[in-house]
């Protein structure tokens, strides 16, 4: 058998050698309409895999046989075929075209030309994500793909990011898309030991990305079966191209600051309003004076001593950003390589927050024989994330705004930061300031998460027959995460008087993926194009972790747990899941006009209950390229018109391992005596969530593609939600995980690109907009309550705010009022009001999901200058200001400093205002109600980049092939009615996903949307950078 | 061509063989947890499940702190001020509880979760390998279950002496382990009387079955003590006096010489003393003393002690030494021990219960009421009384058992009243709906058979 194998290989080697003998070198330069050299353009000998890509100045060299045709393509440009003939020098000018039909689009287990595509796919190129001063690439594509909603949630670095493709389809399961890097589904699960999620996707260097394909409809995504409902993001990394080794180095540096600060009372206003609130509570003048003196570090002259601490300013810092890049790529016709390295260092806008990352990547391709191609992709990264406490922690820097402005920053009694030392006890203050000062934890503690990641795969492509390729891929994704926390003695008020506190956790997540598939394509009679893919896949993911917690350190100088005299907790955990899959795709194209596609996947998952082990996910699609019909061909106005439609089924298995099993837990030991308890009930029928998606799309181009775009209509119906359903707590269980309930997303997506001006001065506009309407159509059970007012409730969008409706302030007594909203037997709504919020009916108060999202990108270029600006918009969503119950309630919930709008409080009978009477711990108006539901719509100038490419002639004098300098701004402008820090918000401790290792399941992360709880705003960042090619 | 076909076949074979091997790979078993069907196989398994039930009552949502704090804040009329930023206790102190109060929900869920642990033990009681173990574990299980039901019915239902307990809704009685969720899981509320009957029956069984000595787990005397507490709540004074008297017979039991010894220590642990009949165990590795978190000035210092309370102590009362002043604010030091055990049933309560029950019944079971009260006073460094009045008994009880979770239940039992901190003139009588917790909103949603308490 071995012999048989080798013979044809050797034969083909001979053929290859002969072919090489007849080639000659062709060189050329590819430019755009304005004459600027285009880097990274693919130059391919037609019908072969012989190719290269252009250098930074657009030039290329390739050895081809005489009579060869070169196919020159680049994302965003029309593909050109050029007959080489006898020429050795080929100047090529590419026309830009955002919807170029010849463009190769990466799809699941292969690629297809844009023209043949019958599914809904958005593909973005490297320039959309390169050199943006953000830790993770998803943030950079915000507003660039219709129907893909991206939300950072918080201005903390390295935290989880919400990516929602066509809405949310799951209540208790995962809603993030499946991420596939170079064919290998990668781990994107949250591995954080805190309830605030981290983002493993930020381990990917954005500058390594060659393209991003987002598979949106079932036709495109069903080949990923039980993990495809939330869309699939395919990331392809850069590869080497034939030609001399080219180097690129880049450097970027910048500063950042919060996009917005909130206005709180100053010292005088605080004194006045708190005095009023205490008087209303019934406090005597003496006790008020004593209280204010206490708040003012015991300084009786608090009214005149001039202390006016702006605590908010103390928690923000000027962020610093710097990034260094180097890459080298090249190769000959047999072996090509791409190598890159990056170091980035991001000091956030919050004190103590820093994210550093170092990446290297090595991608190698080798054409071993005419039939066999081998390759390797390895990405290594290390990230250091200096994290901050969760938003709801007293030690979270943003909670500093609760402190009184009459409290001095430096306590005059100790000369130290307020709260660090009580000279009367020699210990840290335990009751002053009135809340723990979070800066004590920032200055005397840290939480460092270090993550090492190896993302690698080896592949082989073997041509069995002409047109029949066997592909084999072996991939691994290994994450080693180390979390190290230390809190010094002075943090005792927050951590307990334990002489220091230490925590360490190590997590290893190892995934192995094996893909084997056959790909076959054939053209019959030059009319029928057939394309088949058939394969199998096996995936196993094992996560192991261990952790230790300790206290009692000899001094703060000892920071590792070896010095902890008391070990208070320790654990090891292990979990695993496997997936066995069979998949296939067939596409058929008749005469380049009529398109049809079928795909399917059969997924077996260890997560599913014994009764439902395998899920089948088929999809069918069809398309008609009307513009290829004779009656439209060569039409001067309408240059392209295609309609396509698809229907298919996808699944979601993004829930906890072993959710189907009846389990006991051994974690309930009692002071050293072993104990166990029932953990969860059996759900033997538990299986994937099923989504049936219908999509109809129209692609169009006018005036040779100067105006082009797409329109998609979709309907996603999800049934059998894997739901953490509330059950009567009297059963001993709070929830049961089972497949009940339905959800629906329907929407429209529009995208339009116009090349407004072409020539030396170029102006292109890309705009996209998407409307999604989400409804929980059936729950088969009670509504599921989130942490604040969010709910999953039948007939309402997921996460809808439901609560008492605020009716303003009673002019007679200043009480907060709520509408009863009860319905009598005749169906009449009772709109009279009550001061007792318990009497008010709980009614829907707003939808945290945006109705419209979109983006507008304008690109201008002139001579060597280019300017790109992306404006994103999110409309129709509501934000729940969760901290308002403390800082916008006129001291009714305690002494927390108040927002300035509280100065409009009710003071005396007859006052007409919306702000209730201030009363210290009065409880007036503290009910969570529509009073704190705000309009969260916003528009934001997300990125603006101005660049200058130094003319090649000038650059070459400095022995450079290219040189580019640029300035960039992130979040320069925000337009919103929201009065809080930032309408792009989702507080970290509630929105986090489950952690698969520790088994900490947060099945409410999808319900708790749009909550602001002392959440840091996004940074506004300015950077300047340079990129040199040589 | 043949060769090529052969190669294609090899490739296909390769793929399929990879797959068949994979099907077995779907059988992945959990490592951290075990299958419920094998969990209670042996005698030791059932014993471990019983230990798991103690961990349930150790939880902060039960006797780790919330039950006691809820009772004391709801009844408070200005003795203390809760100044923390936690909303649920604030609502308790204001006596304006919103139906989505977080503590109310977690107290309910944890209590029933623990009841299910107990029921699972009782369902597997025949697996214990000796009659002795069987009796002990059944006794412990019934003790823990009645402890929870007694507090649930007192917090979520009207008081025994408020209207008709035979018709007032109490809490649902679930007495069998849950293995599936079905229509039968949508239980209704049993009456207050039915819950009390179950509690008394369980405790009577427990007292009979439990050994006299059982480490820090429940023993015969703890069951008698809890029974005394139940009878006292019902106003069944002869039974209360008798049960308290039985509890006081615990071998080796004695009040510790100084009140402070019961609550303070010179390290961060506080063990059981000769005075303790039953205490929640806490160590650095197990459990959390949430009373320490809320009350202690070395922690959150959320509870400020008001002059009104301090003025109630007689001069020389050593119990008044368990306070300290920081920046002009007074805090209790009763819970300053970071990992201190939480005392649930101690002899001092039994002396006070026996005294009150005897006093009210006009009996002297075990001892005269006066001698019992004077025993408490003597330990507190106070002169002996010569005559006794009911207010004197109740005052002694209050100051002795301060912050131990008795306030609300004693207020209801004695038909007292309270008022919110910001409205000292407003009178909230013991029968007010405001002093009964709402059935948690999530529970009402999940179970249509549950009737909400009036006022919510």
Automatic annotation (TrEMBL), chain A:
Localization of this protein: Cell outer membrane
Keyword Signal part of the UniProt annotation: yes
GO cellular component assignments: cell outer membrane
Residue ranges of every copy of the TonB-dependent receptor-like beta-barrel domain listed in the record: 421-958
Gene3D superfamilies noted in UniProt: Carboxypeptidase-like, regulatory domain, TonB-dependent receptor, beta-barrel domain, TonB-dependent receptor, plug domain
Topology relative to the membrane: Multi-pass membrane protein
Major subcellular site: membrane
InterPro entries: Beta-barrel_TonB, Beta-barrel_TonB_sf, CarboxyPept-like_regulatory, Plug_dom, Plug_dom_sf, TonB-dep_OMP_SusC/RagA, TonB-dep_OMP_SusC/RagA_CS, TonB-dep_rcpt-like
Entry keyword set: Cell outer membrane, Membrane, Signal, TonB box, Transmembrane, Transmembrane beta strand, Transport
Residue ranges constituting the TonB-dependent receptor plug domain according to the UniProt record: 114-232
Pfam families registered for this protein in UniProt: CarbopepD_reg_2 (PF13715), Plug (PF07715), TonB_dep_Rec_b-barrel (PF00593)
Residues in the signal sequence: 1-21
Statement: the UniProt record of this protein carries the keyword Transport: yes
Family recorded in the similarity comment: Belongs to the TonB-dependent receptor family.
Full protein name: SusC/RagA family TonB-linked outer membrane protein
Taxonomic lineage: Bacteria, Pseudomonadati, Bacteroidota, Cytophagia, Cytophagales
From TrEMBL, chain B:
UniProt entry keywords in alphabetical sequence: Cell outer membrane, Membrane, Signal
Record's subcellular location: Cell outer membrane
Record's GO cellular component terms: cell outer membrane
Record InterPro entries: SusD-like_N, SusD_RagB_dom, TPR-like_helical_dom_sf
Signal peptide: 1-21
Keyword Membrane assigned: yes
Cross-referenced Pfam families: SusD-like_3 (PF14322), SusD_RagB (PF07980)
Domain RagB/SusD: 340-456
Family: Belongs to the SusD family.
Name of this protein: RagB/SusD family nutrient uptake outer membrane protein
């Amino acid at each position: 058998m071995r012999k048989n194998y080798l013979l044809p290989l050797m034969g083909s080697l001979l053929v290859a050698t002969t072919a090489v003998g007849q080639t000659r070198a062709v060189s050329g330069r590819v430019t755009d309409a304005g004459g600027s050299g285009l880097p990274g353009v693919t130059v391919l000998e037609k019908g072969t895999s012989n190719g290269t890509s252009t250098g930074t100045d657009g030039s290329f060299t390739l050895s081809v046989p005489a009579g060869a045709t070169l196919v020159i393509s680049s994302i965003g440009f029309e593909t050109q075929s050029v007959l080489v003939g006898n020429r050795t020098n080929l100047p090529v000018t590419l026309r830009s075209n955002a919807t170029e039909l010849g463009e190769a689009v990466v799809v699941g287990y292969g690629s297809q030309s844009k023209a043949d595509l019958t599914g809904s796919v958005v593909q973005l190129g490297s320039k959309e994500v390169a050199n943006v001063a953000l830790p993770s690439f998803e943030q950079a594509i915000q507003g660039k793909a219709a129907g893909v909603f991206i939300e950072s949630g918080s201005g903390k670095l390295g935290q989880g990011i919400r990516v929602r493709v066509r809405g949310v389809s799951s209540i208790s399961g995962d809603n993030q898309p499946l991420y596939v890097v170079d064919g290998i589904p990668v781990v994107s699960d949250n591995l954080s030991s805190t309830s605030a999620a981290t983002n493993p996707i930020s381990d990917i260097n954005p500058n390594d990305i060659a393209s991003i394909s987002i598979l949106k409809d079932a036709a495109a995504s069903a080949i990923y079966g039980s993990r495809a409902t939330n869309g699939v993001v395919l990331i392809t990394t850069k590869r080497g191209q034939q030609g001399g080794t080219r180097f690129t180095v880049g450097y970027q540096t910048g500063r950042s600051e919060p996009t917005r600060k909130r206005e709180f009372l100053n010292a005088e206003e605080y004194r006045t309003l708190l005095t009023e609130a205490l008087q209303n509570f019934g406090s005597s003048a003496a006790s008020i004076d004593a209280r204010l003196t206490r708040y003012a570090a015991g300084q009786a002259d608090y009214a005149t001593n001039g202390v006016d601490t702006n605590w908010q300013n103390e928690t923000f810092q000027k962020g610093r950003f710097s990034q260094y890049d180097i890459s080298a790529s090249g190769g000959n016709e047999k072996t090509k390589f791409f190598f890159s390295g990056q170091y980035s260092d991001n000091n956030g806008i919050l004190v103590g927050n820093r994210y550093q990352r170092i990446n290297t990547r090595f991608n190698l391709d080798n054409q071993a024989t005419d039939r066999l191609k081998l390759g390797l992709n390895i990405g290594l990264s290390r990230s250091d994330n200096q994290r901050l406490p969760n938003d709801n922690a007293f030690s979270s820097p943003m909670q500093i705004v609760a402190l009184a402005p009459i409290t001095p920053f430096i306590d005059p009694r100790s000369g130290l930061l307020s709260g660090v030392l009580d000279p009367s006890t020699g210990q840290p203050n335990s009751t002053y300031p009135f809340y723990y000062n979070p800066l004590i934890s920032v200055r005397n503690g840290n939480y460092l998460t270090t993550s090492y990641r190896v993302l690698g795969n080896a592949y082989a492509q073997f041509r069995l027959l002409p047109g029949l390729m066997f592909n084999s891929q072996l991939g691994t994704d290994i994450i080693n995460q180390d979390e190290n926390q230390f809190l010094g003695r002075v943090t005792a008020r927050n951590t307990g008087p334990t002489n220091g506190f230490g925590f360490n956790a190590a997590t290893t997540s190892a995934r192995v993926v094996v893909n084997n598939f056959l790909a076959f394509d054939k053209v019959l009679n030059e009319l029928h194009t057939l394309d088949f893919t058939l394969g199998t896949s096996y995936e196993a993911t094992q996560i192991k972790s261990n952790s230790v917690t300790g206290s009692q350190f000899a001094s703060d100088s000892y920071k590792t747990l070896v010095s902890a005299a008391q070990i208070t907790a320790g654990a090891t955990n292990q979990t695993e899941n496997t997936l066995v899959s069979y998949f296939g795709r067939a596409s058929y194209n008749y005469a380049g006009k009529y398109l049809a596609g079928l795909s399917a996947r059969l997924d077996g998952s260890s997560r599913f209950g014994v009764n439902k082990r395998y899920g089948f996910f088929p999809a069918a699609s069809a398309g008609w390229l009307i513009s290829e019909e004779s009656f439209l061909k060569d039409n001067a106005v309408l240059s392209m018109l295609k309609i396509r439609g698809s229907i298919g089924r996808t699944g979601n298995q993004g829930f906890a391992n072993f959710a189907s099993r009846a389990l006991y837990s051994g974690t309930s030991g009692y002071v050293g005596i072993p104990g166990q308890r029932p953990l969860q009930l059996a759900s033997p029928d538990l299986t994937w969530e099923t989504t049936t998606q219908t999509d109809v799309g129209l692609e169009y181009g006018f005036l040779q593609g100067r105006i082009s775009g797409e329109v998609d209509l979709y309907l996603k119906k999800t049934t059998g939600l894997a739901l953490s359903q509330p059950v009567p707590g009297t059963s001993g269980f709070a929830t049961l995980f089972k497949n009940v309930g339905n959800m629906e997303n329907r929407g429209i997506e529009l995208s339009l690109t116009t090349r407004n001006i072409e020539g030396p001065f170029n102006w292109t506009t890309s705009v996209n907009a998407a409307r999604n309407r989400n409804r929980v159509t059936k729950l088969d059970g009670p509504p599921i309550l989130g942490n604040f007012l969010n709910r999953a409730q039948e007939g309402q969008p997921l996460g809808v705010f439901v609560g008492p409706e605020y009716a303003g302030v009673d002019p007679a007594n200043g009480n907060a009022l709520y509408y009863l909203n009860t319905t009598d037997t005749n169906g009449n709504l009772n709109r009279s009001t009550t001061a007792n919020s318990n009497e008010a009916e709980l009614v829907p108060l707003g939808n945290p999901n945006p109705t419209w999202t979109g983006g507008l990108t304008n690109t201008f270029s002139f001579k060597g200058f280019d300017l790109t600006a992306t404006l994103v918009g999110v409309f129709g969503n509501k934000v729940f200001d969760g901290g308002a119950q403390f800082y916008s309630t006129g001291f009714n919930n305690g002494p927390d400093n108040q927002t300035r709008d509280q100065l409009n409080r009710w003071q005396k009978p007859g006052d007409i205002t919306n702000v209730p009477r201030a009363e210290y711990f009065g409880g007036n108006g503290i009910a969570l109600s529509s009073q704190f539901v705000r309009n969260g719509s916003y528009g934001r100038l997300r990125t603006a980049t101005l660049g200058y490419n130094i003319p090649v002639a000038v650059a070459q004098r400095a022995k450079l092939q290219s040189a580019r300098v640029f300035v960039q701004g992130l979040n320069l402008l925000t337009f919103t009615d929201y009065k809080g820090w930032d309408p792009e918000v989702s507080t970290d401790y509630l929105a986090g996903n489950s952690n698969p290792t520790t088994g900490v399941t947060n099945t409410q992360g999808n319900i708790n949307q749009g909550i602001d709880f002392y959440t840091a705003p996004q940074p506004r960042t300015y950077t300047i950078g340079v990129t040199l090619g040589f | 061509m043949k060769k090529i076909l052969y190669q294609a076949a090899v490739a296909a074979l390769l793929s399929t063989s990879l797959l068949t091997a994979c099907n077995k790979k779907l059988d992945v078993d959990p490592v951290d947890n075990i299958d419920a069907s094998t969990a209670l196989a042996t005698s030791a398994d059932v014993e471990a499940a019983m230990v798991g039930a103690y961990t349930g009552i150790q939880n902060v949502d039960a006797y780790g702190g919330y039950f006691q704090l809820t009772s004391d804040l709801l009844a408070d009329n200005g003795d203390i001020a809760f100044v923390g930023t936690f909303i649920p206790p604030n609502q308790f102190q204001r006596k304006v509880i919103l139906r989505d109060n977080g503590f109310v929900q977690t107290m309910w869920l944890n209590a029933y979760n623990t009841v299910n642990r107990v029921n699972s033990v009782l369902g597997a009681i025949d697996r214990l390998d000796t009659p002795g173990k069987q009796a002990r574990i059944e006794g412990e299980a019934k003790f823990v279950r009645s402890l929870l039901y007694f507090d649930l019915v007192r917090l979520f239902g009207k008081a025994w002496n408020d209207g008709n307990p035979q018709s007032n809704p109490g809490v649902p009685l679930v007495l069998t382990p849950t293995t599936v969720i079905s229509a039968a899981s949508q239980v209704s509320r049993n009456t207050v009387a039915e819950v009390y009957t179950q509690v008394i029956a369980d405790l009577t069984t427990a007292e009979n079955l439990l050994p006299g000595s059982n480490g820090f787990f429940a023993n015969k005397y703890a069951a008698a003590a809890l029974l005394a507490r139940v009878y006292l709540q019902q106003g069944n004074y002869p039974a209360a006096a008798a049960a308290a008297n039985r509890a006081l017979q615990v071998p080796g039991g004695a009040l510790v010489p100084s009140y402070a010894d019961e609550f303070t220590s010179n390290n961060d642990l506080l063990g059981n003393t000769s005075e303790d009949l039953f205490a929640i165990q806490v160590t650095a590795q197990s459990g959390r003393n949430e009373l320490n978190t809320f009350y202690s000035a070395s922690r959150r210092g959320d509870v400020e002690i008001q002059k009104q309370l301090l003025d109630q102590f007689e001069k020389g009362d050593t119990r008044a030494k368990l306070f300290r002043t920081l920046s002009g604010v007074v805090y209790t030091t009763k819970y300053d021990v970071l990992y201190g055990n939480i005392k649930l049933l101690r002899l001092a309560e039994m002396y006070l219960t026996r005294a009150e029950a005897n006093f009210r019944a006009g009996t002297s079971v075990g001892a005269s009421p006066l001698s019992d009260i004077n025993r408490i006073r003597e330990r507190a460094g106070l002169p002996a009384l010569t005559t006794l009045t009911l207010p004197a008994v109740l005052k002694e009880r209050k100051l002795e058992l301060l912050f131990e979770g008795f306030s609300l239940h004693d207020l209801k039992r004695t038909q007292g009243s309270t008022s919110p901190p910001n409205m000292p003139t407003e009178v909230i009588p013991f029968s007010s709906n405001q002093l009964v917790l709402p059935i948690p909103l999530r529970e009402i949603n999940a179970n249509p058979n549950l009737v909400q308490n009036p006022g919510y």
